[in-house]
Each structure stands twice: as structure tokens, then as C-alpha cells.
Amino acid sequence: MEIERNCYLCKQVLTDDLVMIDKIKALLQEIENMKANNAEELEALRIKYLSKKGEISLLMNDFRNVAAEQKREIGKYLNELKTTAVNKISELRENFNNVDTGSSEVDLTRTAYPCELGTRHPLSLVRKEICDIFGRLGFSIAEGPEIEDDWHVFSALNFAEDHPARDMQDTFFIQHNPDVLLRTHTSSVQTRVMEKQQPPIRIICPGRVYRNEAISYRAHCFFHQVEALYVDKNVSFADLKQALLFFAKEMFGNDTKIRLRPSYFPFTEPSAEMDISCDLCGGKGCAFCKGTGWVEILGCGMVDPNVLKNCGIDPDVYSGYALGMGIERVTNLKYKVKDLRMFSENDIRFLKEFESAN
Ligand code: DAH
Questions:
Q1: Which of 37, 129, 199, 295 is most open to solvent, judged by the fewest CB atoms within 10 Å of its CB?
Q2: Where are the domains of the chain?
Q3: What top-level class would CATH report for the domain 122-357?
Q4: How far is the CA of 279 from the centre of ligand 1 (A)?
């Protein structure tokens, strides 16, 4: 049995069309009073009324069945309902854009996150400085492979097969093959350049080197060197000394003094080691220089004629000097870093100390 219903406004007996008008009016009221506390609630309301399956769309579907004579009136109500809903939703949205609701919305007035800029690694700073100084003397940069062969690292550089100097440089061999190894010094780049190029040669070779050493505060299994080589007609030991003094003064300050002590390297003859005056005590003697007033910095010498010959350069026509230094060593002297391991630990606190040197 069908139950007769009356319109709650006009008390007429309800037909289907009148039920629809009733629904529209009730919805209109609901929408006019609608409130949302945050963006999520607002979105839920939008979906409830305005989405494809929302209440207004459902009414729009029902509208197809409305009797022709009612269409005009109900259509008008429906349109009004839809416009009211759209306006109300955008009015509420406006409020959210202006008011801090305490929700997770992005706050555009907030100051930006601080942007942490990286800095250059101290070894990169010192490598660049060394290369720049030699660059001012006309040296250009040359590079070579880190995985090397015996010839370029040892044999061409005058290391005899059973020479004890090979032991001095505990070598990492690869695949148990005595001819594939990690270079133990950047002097191997000298060999490669001289094999390819006739003098004048004036190169500086920065790079990483490897030695089978136990890691401690003063030794590491990898570190960095810079090698310099100058080969031309009439290059003398005086030229070497001049370049060394220039380098020391540029790197450590104009008051720096140098001294050369006789030494031995298979690839140079004569060979020397260079000390610089200790810049902590000005040469008087302190704990840093172990009371001597001097600190050791690099090895150098005149390129051995055998090395020139091995690389296809005539030692009767040409002569040259070479020098090699550890970048870690120079960095330690310049910045007084006591523990070599700091260079490869990526400790931000350590790296930040070099910010101002960048
Ligand atoms: N290659 C040497 C080393 O690793 C450093 C060196 C000494 C390089 C004397 C040179 C040199 O060019 O003349 O200890």
C-alpha cells in the first residue's frame, strides 16, 4: 500500500515531482548552512554534493523523468541549487586560503629552509693551489692511469728488477699479475708523457696513489701526490732550486726558507729532499718541527739519463729536473692536520673548518 505524503511547506499531496522540489529545497538549506573546519572536510562536502555521483548530479539524472509541464519550474530550482553549491564551496575555500587553520597546509609566509652549500675538500684546495703556482711557471697539467703496469711505475724509472726501492713502495698487485698494479707514485705519469712527447716538456701531474700500508694517523693505503717534470736543453740544478724556492714562498709565505739534503731516488741523479723552515716557530725549533726548525716536504732531483733514454729522449741533448710531493703532507704543513685519516672520513665538522679557505 502506498502511503500518501504531504509537502512540509505547502501541505499539498506529494506527487514524484513535488518530492523532487522538496528535496531540492531541503538540499538548498543544507548547502547554505554548510561549514567546513579544514580543507579535507571541504573536499568531502564537494564530493558529497558536486561530484559525478553526488547528490546534485543524482537529482539532475532524475530530472529526465520530470513531467514536461513541471520541467521549467524544477529546472529553475535545480540550477539555483547547483550555483549555490558551487559558490558556497568556493566561498569556503577562500576562507581556508586566508586563515591559518593549523592543518598541514603549506605556509607560504614561512622563511625558507637554510640551504647548506658544500665546500671544497682541503686536499682539493691544496692540489689546486700547487697546480696554480706551477701553472704560473708555465707548467701544464698531465694525467695518467691509476691502474698501471710495471714498466711505467718501476722499470722505465730505473728501478732494477731486484732493487730494494721496489720494496720501499709496498705495491697492490691486481689479479696476482705482477704486471697489473695500482700506481705507487705519480712519477709514472712522467714516463707516459716522455714516451709520447719530445722536449720541451713542462708538466705537473696531480693524482691518487696507492701503497699497501697499515692505516694509521700518519699512513694510509691511498693518498695523493703531485709530480712536476721539466725537460729541455740545458736544464740545470739551479733551475730546480729556483722553482722550489718560488713554490715554497708562494705556498707558505714570503719568509719561507728552503734547504736541500742529499737523498736517493732511482729515477733522479743527483737526488735531494727539500725541507722548509717551520712556519710555527719561524725556524727557532718547536714541537711541530721536533726542535729542528725545519720540516720535510718533497723529493726532487735531476732526471737520471737512463730514464730519459728509456722513454726515447736523447740524454746527450736534453736534461731535466723532477720533483714529487704528497698533497696530504703539504696540507698538513699548511693547515696543521694531525691525523691523515681525517681526509677520507667525510666528517662534516672537519670539512667545515676549511669553509673560509674556499
Ligand atoms: N716518487 C717519489 C715518491 O713517491 C717522489 C719523488 C721524489 C718524485 C723525487 C720525483 C723526484 O719526481 O724527483 O716518494
A1: 37
A2: 2-102, 122-357
A3: alpha beta
A4: 24
- Per-residue pLDDT, averaged over 198-216, amounts to 96
pTM of the model: 0.70
Q: How far is CA 206 from the centre of its chain?
A: 20
CB contact set of 209 (below 8 Å; sequence gap of 6+): 146, 182, 183, 184, 185, 186, 222, 223, 224, 225
Please give the pLDDT value at position 18.
Answer: 66
Q: Which residues line ligand 1 (CB under 6 A)?
A: 185, 187, 227, 265, 268, 299-301, 322-324
- Total count of residues recorded for the chain: 358
**Separation between Cα atoms, residue 48 and residue 56, nearest integer Å:** 9
How far is the centre of ligand 1, averaged over its atoms, from the C-alpha of 341 (Å)?
Answer: 22
Mutate to test the pocket of ligand 1, among 130, 166, 193, 267 (most ligand atoms within 8 A of CB): 267
Q: What is the pLDDT of residue 278?
A: 92
Can you tell me the distance from the alpha carbon of 267 to that of 305, in angstroms, rounded to the nearest whole number?
9
**Sign of the torsion formed by the C-alpha atoms of 237, 240, 246 and 247:** negative
Angle (nearest 5°) at CA 102 between 99 and 107? 70
Signed CA dihedral, 331, 130, 133, 270: sign only: positive
Q: Where are the alpha helices (DSSP H) in 253-352?
A: 305-310, 327-335, 348-352
Do residues 96 and 39 make contact, with C-beta atoms less than 8 angstroms apart?
yes
Q: How far apart are CA 68 and CA 302, in angstroms?
A: 111
How far apart are the CA of 325 and the centre of ligand 1, in A? Answer: 7
Q: What pLDDT was estimated at residue 2?
A: 47
